[in-house]
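anyone seen this seq b4? input:
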Amino acid sequence: MLKGLYTAASGMLAQQRRQEVLSNNLANVNTNGYKADQGQLRAFPEMLMKSMESKPTSMNGSGFITTSKEIGSINSGVYVQETIPNFVQGDLRETGISTDTALVDGNVPDENGSIFFTVQTAAGEAYTRNGNFTIDADGFLTNDQGSYVLDTEGNAIQTNNQTYKLTADGTMQFADGRNIQLGLSYVQDSNLLDKQGENVYSASNEAQVADARAMDGVTYNIVQGAVEGSNVNLQQTMADMMQAYRTFEMNQKVMKAYDESLGKAVNEVGKL
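predicted toks r here
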């Protein structure tokens, strides 16, 4: 009976964690470049149940032999193993602001490969799909969190407060004749990125990051005066939240039933 309590409790904890992930997605439905998190549910290892019995080996019962018979397997619960961002392209939204930049995916040679803008945060080099850029008081191109946008050499981009034209391959063409290429990084497996917060990711030790322009088979398009929106599906998220709530509620009822049964076993059967 206690195994059932543990199983129901693990189900409640898993759905609570799933609800937190979905709530965070819902809160970022209007965040530029946000990628929705997906909770990966996993079952605890199944246990094989057996019945054990002893049989006499002789007529006088002087010896016994123990035998076992398989009954079946029992699952010991579920848990949220990890949350993985979904890097599917979000819808483009035109803003008309010249510093806003949208990155449109083309072709990538790897199934989980993705292209990102490269920025410099306090923790080091990071990657983002949020192209809501602006020019700070010192003339540097920054994102909406104040992090420097980097060029292909890993340097902060100094605009000298000049306007520029952005080509489809990510080249910034200034009126004074300077050409600066936006730093575009290609991550072979985006699932190996670590979420830093503030809509940026850092590369884990296993992640392979390279210049997107130098990778064979990688194509993309840069759009000036637009931003990529969040890829959160509002309707699906609301439906998933309701499903998680109902599943939590069912596990709660199972726990209540087990609790009532244990109460009867202690308070009523125990009196006999």
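The longest strand covers residues 64-74. The helical segments are 2-27, 234-267. kinda curious what u guys think
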